[in-house]
Design brief:
PAS-like_dom_sf; 2 domains; WH-like_DNA-bd_sf; alpha+beta; 17% strand; elongated; RNA binding; Beta-Lactamase; 5-stranded antiparallel beta sheet; 5 strands; disordered N terminus; ANTAR domain-containing protein; 9 helices; ANTAR
């Protein structure tokens, strides 16, 4: 084998001065066992006879007790989510015919009404002793991963809402203090400024506070506040036009 044809592992060993020691079980666990532990089961379909077999974990994923039902295509279909029953993954059929691995995801509904998300992976192969073709693979319950993703998204939305409300309160406080008005009047001033350029109150408040900080002067004067209010401007919006944020004619600041 020429140096060009040598595998990366051989080159790395030579650069390092010799073969690398095999990783310990702990090192492998640290590298591979990252994230959320998921329930995984096994299945096998004998294509000639149509016989199915699956492990206890597959029973549990579908809401069955062990051996409560006979493994079959009909049993699996009965648990599929109604919205997923008509969906066909063409790649799966192509992979089975070619003997390539496949993977697909769908939802199942247990007898208790709970919906779970499963990923099915498998590959067609020939059972040499029996001379038959079969499909073997795994079923993985990815529901916990989806729940964690939704929880992170919800936490992010809540945090964003808290931050947005905080800057609105800060801007209202500045307007109330400088103009000597109550909270309701200060909020209306900020709301009017936002409405004139068609931005949410949070954006108007952020721009107002940013403009005042850019003044770099001690205290906030009436003139500085007016300049900051006048500096509130439209922003690019990736979504469609919001009729609730239609611009109103800009009025003179007092």
């Amino acid at each position: 084998m020429s140096s060009v044809e040598q595998s990366p592992s051989v080159v790395e060993d030579r650069v390092a001065g010799g073969p690398l020691p095999p990783p310990s079980p702990g090192e492998l666990a640290d590298a591979l066992g990252v994230g959320t532990s998921l329930l995984i089961g096994r299945y096998c379909v004998e294509l000639t006879s149509g016989d199915w077999w699956w492990s206890d974990e597959v029973y549990a994923m579908h809401g069955w007790k062990r051996h409560e039902v006979r493994p079959s295509l009909q049993a699996l279909s009965s648990r599929k989510h109604p919205d997923d029953r008509a969906r066909m993954v063409r790649a799966v059929g192509d992979a089975l015919r070619a003997g390539r691995p496949f993977a697909c995801g769908h939802r199942v509904v247990g007898h208790d009404g709970r919906t779970r998300s499963l990923v099915v992976v498998g590959q067609g192969r020939r059972n040499a002793p029996a001379g038959t073709r079969e499909i073997v693979g795994y079923v993985v319950d990815v529901t916990p991963v989806q729940k964690e993703a939704l929880d992170r998204r919800a936490a992010s939305v809540v945090q964003h809402a808290f931050v947005g409300q905080a800057v609105i309160e800060q801007a209202k406080g500045v307007v109330a203090a400088v103009r000597g008005v109550n909270e309701a009047t200060a909020e209306q001033v900020l709301r009017d400024a936002a409405g004139e350029v068609g931005v949410p109150m949070r954006v108007a408040a952020e721009q107002l506070i940013g403009a005042l900080r850019a003044e770099e002067r001690p205290g906030v004067t009436q003139a500085a506040l007016s300049r900051a209010l006048d500096a509130i401007h439209p922003v690019e919006r990736p979504r469609g036009r919001d009729p609730l944020l239609t611009r109103r004619p800009r009025t003179a600041r007092t």
